[in-house]
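As a warm-up, study this chain.
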Amino acid sequence: MSIVEKAVEKLKALPVEPTASPQVEAVPPHTAPTVERLQERTRVVDQPMEAAALYHLDRAALRRRGLLLADKEADRKLADELRRIKRPLLNNAMGKGAETFARGNRILVTSAEPGEGKTFAAVNLALSLAREADFEVLLVDGDIPKSDITHAFGLEGKLGLMDVVANEQLAPTEAIIRTDVSNLLVVPAGKRHSLAAELFRSRRMEYVMDEFGGRNRRRLLVFDSAPLLVTTESHVLASHMGQVVVMVAAGRTRRQAVNSAVQSLNDLQYVGLVLNMSRLPASEDYFSRHYGQHFKALKGEV
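Now compare it with the structure written out below.
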């Protein structure tokens, strides 16, 4: 027997000791690996707004406040008027108009003086635009003194425009509320601030506007603003817009007031007039002799 064979025989004769099983650390149930845990944390932080609960838009409350029409026939006629109004606005937002307007996706709805139907127009224009398949609409309450949209939508105490402009620690998107109306989002006015005009003029405001816009041309911003001849911040807010819709109440708004309001806007903006509460026929081009764009009548006084 060779030396190797003898050694093998000796090894076989040795008693076999039990092999200790390796120590395996108990893993708590539902614990994911580190990479997976980090990915899960990222998903929570970046949770899209669509995953949040949708805010219910109380149409009955809006009707009680005069922001929606109760009469079906009147509502049908209003829908037709809104289609005429929004057509040039959409063309400008998409860069398909006769002229090119910077920031065409930002639309301000205002008036020269109070009581000319600007909030009614802003709400119904936003709802009409939200029916467009290619866009979503962000309706912003920019009328800080009155905050009619905030009150009508029941959003008092919610984070709003002034809050995210005044506080750089807040992300502008925190003020955006997605409603249960398809493609419609809302931003309340927020808390009043004594330096509203200065804040609207700041670089922070431009950043907030960019964030509200979603940094793409698919989202349209519709701002309800205080009347141009009433507050200073309305002029500053208008300076951030590419398009301005000025409400004019038939038989009520003074021509001088309309001229002053329009002249306060800059030449780089698209400015359209909406003749509100008018009894003129749809073909009557009442303002075309004085301004480049004429819109027809709506019905609303809010």
